[in-house]
Design a protein that fits this description.
Elements lengths: L7 E4 L6 E4 L5 E5 L2 H7 L4 E7 L3 E5 L4 E2 L5 E4 L9 E4 L4 E5 L13 E3 L10 H4 L39
Parallel strand pairs: 3-10
Antiparallel strand pairs: 1-2, 2-5, 3-4, 4-9, 6-7, 7-8, 8-9
The protein binds zinc ion (2 copies).
Length: 165
């Protein structure tokens, strides 16, 4: 495991895969295309795109699914987190913004793949939805009693073991 000074860091949900980004200002986009929808299992994907030279895996080396002749997408084989999108002919890689330790560090500037955008991904509609905090969302057990197996939002160079139940 290596550390990159001043980097944005991120990783998968289980912590088997970690990465660092040194780019000061990633180009961040939302993609609504049908392939991104399928790859992340959601109506759209948010990717922060940087040069390959500004990106490094710092823990683990994930496999990639070749989603077309043009692109590949890395994912964690242990927990299934979708991690990247990358056009093979470029020197760039997009990291899935939700996998950053601090997703607020990037801000999307453009919508791509709008031909597949689901009709309810509409600001006027979305703001009509009730907004509920996680601790009020009616989880099957009291949230305070849950044991969280998600890797913490920072590098753990000395190793990390999920809490025992
Ligand atoms: Zn994982
Ligand atoms: Zn897409």
């Amino acid at each position: 495991m290596t550390q990159m000074a001043g980097a944005m860091t991120g990783g998968c949900q289980c912590g088997a895969i970690r990465y660092a980004v040194t780019a000061a200002a990633p180009r961040t986009s939302l993609c609504h295309c049908r392939m991104c929808q399928k790859a992340v299992g959601q109506p759209f994907a948010a990717y922060a795109t940087v040069k390959l030279a500004e990106f490094a895996w710092t823990c683990g080396q994930p496999p990639a699914f070749r989603s077309s002749t043009a692109a590949e997408r890395h994912f964690c084989p242990a927990c299934g987190t979708s991690l990247t999108f990358r056009y093979l002919e470029t020197d760039e890689i997009g990291v899935a913004a939700g996998t950053l330790d601090r997703p607020e560090q990037v801000t999307p500037r453009v919508h791509f793949g709008v031909e597949s955008r689901v009709s309810w991904m509409d600001p006027a509609f979305l703001q009509t939805l009730r907004s509920v905090r996680t601790d009020n969302a009616g989880a099957p057990q009291a949230v305070a009693a849950l044991v969280n197996f998600q890797h913490p939002d920072h590098d753990t160079p000395d190793g990390w073991t999920p809490p025992a139940v």
